[in-house]
Amino acid sequence: MSGAVEAAEAAQRAASDPRVSAFVGASAGSGKTKLLTDRLLRLMLAGAPPARILCLTFTRAAAAEMAIRLRQRLGLWAIADDAALDDDLASLDVVATASIRARARGMFGLVLDLPGGMRIDTIHAFCQSLLRRFPLEAQISPHFRVADEAETAERRRAAREDILGEASAGQHAALRLLAGEISEVQFAALTDQLLADSQTHLARLLGRHGDAASISAMQAAALGAPEIDEDALWNEAVTFDDRAIRAALGRISQDSSAKAKERALDLLLARGQVLVTMADLAALPARRRRSVPVWRVAAGTLTLTPRVA
């Protein structure tokens, strides 16, 4: 066990060396924050001015933790005797000399004198500060503010309602088609998913292939699907030799619920045709070709599960 601990500590010291570029991946509680704090300390001990160091984290909690640890360590260095300070510097692989000791003890005052302290912040906060410094270059209002999660959700809901209202007024043909497939709640979940994915898979897909038609053609080519329109597919589907399907539909039309019987008869007899006997079904494929719209509706609503009395 001691060998594994020594190897891990050696790897941490190597990654904290400011002369190397390191990518660190580790689980929670394994010492990533300590490693970053050690790297900041070694940067300053090597002569980097604290005001020129920028440290970015993903969360405010991580940024606050790093700032607290850094101040505590520097505070201890400011009052430590030579032996204690030398031991702490040795843990950083820093050779203790008179100049290094003097710099280590003086860094606490340097950090305290910085306006706002060390620049340890989140990536989002850093980007926001850049936008506030250069709003015109970013083509945004100088008085912008970042919406919180509640406000973002409310604006997203209002935008969805506006779009749905326009669809009901005759605009957005794609949304009118989508409305027949999913509910309003499912539509909200779909838009949230698309927004979350807009900068990843969907954006790359649209950037590479341009529009929906190009994407469909690419997908068909990848699947080896023939280039055939929907009407042709339905004509092929309803005219093949489907005796097994007709037998199942016949059972449903006789031994199932009233609604299922009605739908089964829609498929078997192509509502509106004068077909009343099972013998007439032999001629049904040609007639079904003329009744594709009926099949589309019925096939989309029928559950093919007969209920035997």
Question: Which terms summarize this structure?
Answer:
309 residues, mainly alpha, Rossmann fold, 4 domains, two-stranded parallel sheet, 16 helices, disordered C terminus
Q: Mind explaining what this structure looks like?
A:
The protein has 309 residues and is mainly alpha-helical. The protein contains 16 helices and two strands. Helix 13 (243-254) runs antiparallel to helix 14 (258-269) and helix 14 (258-269) packs antiparallel against helix 16 (292-299).
In brief:
This protein is mainly α and 309 residues long. The chain has 16 helices and two strands.
Describe the protein's topology.
Layout: H1 2-15, H2 32-45, E1 54-57, H3 60-79, H4 82-91, H5 98-113, E2 119-122, H6 123-133, H7 149-168, H8 173-179, H9 184-197, H10 201-209, H11 212-223, H12 230-239, H13 243-254, H14 258-269, H15 284-289, H16 292-299
Parallel strand pairs: 1-2
Helix pairs in contact: 2-3, 3-5, 13-14, 14-16
